[in-house]
Specification:
There is one protein chain. By secondary structure, the protein is α/β, with parallel strands linked by helices. It folds into two domains: about 35-115 and about 220-260, Periplasmic binding protein-like II (D-Maltodextrin-Binding Protein, domain 2), CATH 3.40.190; about 115-210, Periplasmic binding protein-like II (D-Maltodextrin-Binding Protein, domain 2, 3-Layer(aba) Sandwich), CATH 3.40.190.10. It has helices spanning about 1-25, 45-60, 70-80, 90-100, 150-160, 165-170, 180-185, 200, 235-245, 245-255; strands at about 35-40, 60-70, 85-90, 110-115, 115-120, 140-145, 175, 195, 205-210, 220-225, 260. A six-stranded mixed beta sheet has the order 2-1-3-10-4-11. The chain is elongated. Mean pLDDT is about 90; it is low at about 5-30.
């Protein structure tokens, strides 16, 4: 009797083991999950992080991995073969360059968002109330993005140039690697003023907006989006691009201060 029980137990164990192995082979949900790598301008950080759970709620089979940074740097990464499925730039220039080199998936590019440039100062700073105040001798340092690689910096340069101030302010300018670094410089008082997007200014309670760049003082601030030609998951990438134009994503973008380009 004891021997029979031992045999039954052994058979039961083997059956359970085979069943477990069989189930693991027929249910590979985790390994089969699609991953999309999204390279996006730094100014999109908060909005995109808020959108992620909303997207994955509708698309649980897709994992989103974000790569935020200056649009110029992201462009270079794509040109050098970095694995990217979707690119969102803070200016058309970077997207134009990739399109000219044949690195975008045909028919997927479109204008997604628009933004504005504002002049900000640390809270309760009486030194700067207008763009003209930047010429004041009491203003020591002004933060802007690096114009060659940071779209916000290029727009800031255009604004100051249109006011015939850029060359005169050169000794005061502190160039940052991205627009979020400009915001940090102003928040910490490392500069007396800075120029950022409206959307960046909205997320901080440590700064004040004192002026908005005049209409016509800079190129339209448009954020284009496209699927990269070498995407390993082009259909999922197209679906994500479509989701960013949905009413769900639209409400998030608007909450963070973005306007829709179309």
């Amino acid at each position: 009797m004891n021997r029979r029980r031992i045999i039954n137990l052994a058979c039961g164990f083997v059956f359970s083991l085979l069943l477990a192995v069989g189930c693991s082979q027929t249910s590979p949900q985790t390994s089969a999950q699609t991953e999309l790598i999204i390279s996006a301008a730094a100014s999109l950080t908060d909005a995109m992080n808020a959108i992620q759970p909303l997207y994955q709620q509708e698309n649980p089979e897709v994992k989103l991995t974000y790569n935020f940074g200056p649009s110029g740097s992201l462009q270079q990464q794509i040109e050098q073969g970095a694995p990217v499925d979707v690119f969102i730039s803070a200016a058309p220039k970077q997207m134009n360059d990739l399109e000219e080199k044949g690195l975008l998936l045909s028919g997927t590019r479109k204008d997604l968002l628009k933004n504005a440039i504002v002049l900000i100062v640390p809270k309760a700073n009486p030194k700067v109330k207008t763009f003209q105040d930047l010429m004041n001798g009491k203003v020591g340092k002004i933060g802007i993005g690096e114009p060659e690689s940071v779209p916000a910096g290029r727009y800031a340069k255009e604004v100051l140039t249109s006011m015939n101030m850029y060359d005169k302010l050169q000794p005061k300018l502190v160039f940052a690697k991205d627009v979020r670094q400009v915001l940090t410089y102003v928040e910490t008082g490392n500069v007396d003023a800075g120029m950022v997007y409206t959307t960046d200014a909205k997320i901080s309670d440590k700064i004040s907006i004192v002026a908005t760049a005049p209409a016509g003082s800079h190129s339209p601030i448009i954020y284009p989006i496209a699927v990269i030609k070498d995407s390993k998951n082009p259909e999922a990438a197209k679906g994500f691009v479509s989701f960013l134009s949905s009413n769900t994503a639209k409400s998030v973008f608007e909450r963070y201060g973005f306007g829709l380009a179309n």
